[in-house]
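Can you make up a polypeptide sequence alongside its tokenized fold?
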Amino acid sequence: MTCIDKSLYKVLYVDLTSKRFWIEDRSDLFEKYLGGVGVAVKLLEEEMPKGADPLGPDNVIVFAIGPLTAMYPMASKTIAVFKSPLTGNFGESHAGGRSAVAIRNAGYGAIVIKGASDIPVYLVIDNGGVKFRDARALWGMRSAITVGRIIREAEGGAGVRTIMRIGAAGEKLVRYASVMTETYRHFGRLGLGAVFGSKKLKAVMVAGKRTIPVKDKQAYRSVYDEIFKTAVESPAMKKYHDLGTAVNVLSLNKIKGLPTRNLKSAEFEGADAISGEHLAEARLGRRIACAHCPVACIHLAALREPYETEPYFYKTVFVSYDYELIYALGSMLGIRDPDGLLKLIDTVEVYGLDAMSTGVILAWMTEALEGKIISEKETITKLKWGDYQEYIKAVEYIVQQPNDFYKAAAIGLDYLAEKYGGIDFALSHGGNPMPGYHTGPAAHIGYLIGARHSHLDNAGYSLDQKLLGKTYPTPEELIDKLVDEESWRQILSSLVVCFFARGIYKPEVVAKALQPLGYTYTADDLKNIGFEIYKEKYRLKVREGFKVSKLRIPRRILKTPTPHGYIKEEYIVKALNYFKKKMGIPE
């Protein structure tokens, strides 16, 4: 079961405090947990002391890739794990782009970043190791996009390069700040950008140009061609290419599962104007793809804006959009103006914020202001549903933190609502603001039990949609389905494969794809490893203080009907109790 490419077993350790690095062979972990998230979780457990401050030097960042990285189509994600400053618990985020291929070509399977620098720095990582660059001239720059451009010009490096960097939000320790890579891809959720900021780490550039060996080239070519052909002929992949995930706007709105105005409704009257179809027809500028991906699901809208002092002169800005951004910064805020939506998305992008968290927090602010729980003394600006200009101001205030209210907003939705009131309509699960699916019990239970409280953990939202018109399962049956799905996703996250390709990379296909690389796993072997990785995540969560009994069920989700009708609290409670028993989670 040994990979022929031994460099995948190399872990690069970087200590920001002492400005030194070293490399270790961790074949023990890679041979047991494949790579990606399986290895990353164990490295985080080893290197991070129990109870570490998420914004202190003891927190650890682990980037990891897997055996399929740079080898097969759509195996292009990098996994990042860390202790989340937003939830105080296990943090995990995935990003596409070129980062995974760059790390593999540089000769590493994982990168572990420890300690904290005394001055702002950025790292340059290549086949020869690490260089520590002074980033004081970059610190304080508002835009993460500009930072990437400067480093790209300043640094050489042949082969595949990636630049992972933060904007002003990360520097200001906003606990849902993101890390941008390749301008249009992100480690978005759970605050990795704030962890970078706390370590005075402005960016990490990785460049590599290795050739990766294959055990059986003929078999590899055959499997590669089979996967590639399946991908380009797949109706699902065509949908992602043509419209991207923005295709979900109208389909979810049609079944009344599209969260609108802080989930006071699940149907948006302005959905047509911000739909994937309308944006593609009226605003689409280009499509781009992650490395080694034939799908090109990243859609960029061309936003044409006039210069204030020059008549008939315009600048064109490309703005990446997808379903989650349209939901969080569109329907959730009642915004139906496509240009206004794109301007708000661009502001969030420039500052380096997680769009989902930002949108849900802005929606809570609007309802709290509307209900006179807070006043304009706190918000400074008059937030109104649909007024994108006021929301842009509020985004700037979240980063600048001009008063106590916005300092609280930078800590997170739960903290903000507990301090000012309005916790009943604060839409977060396990501390993570909710994704854009109000499709039924499986979605919300999935957010609660997912190891990172994300819709991508176990696809409960997808299960809800498949169950429309059918008898809904018991809480126990539902949990079994969600756990099975999340367990398999640990394998995809360890290989590392994009979840959009989950219908292509089925257990038998994965086992077949691994063989030319030197592995001899069966489909059952992989499923067992996936469940073990899932349990390892939960062991780490529990070590850091997580308790199922402490999970808060947002009251609003019980009051707004889903496509399956109203969600019953007792159903959720039964599901959580069964989950705790099934996973052997102590209380």
Notes: The mean pLDDT is 95. The CA atoms of residues 55 and 198 lie 5 Å apart.
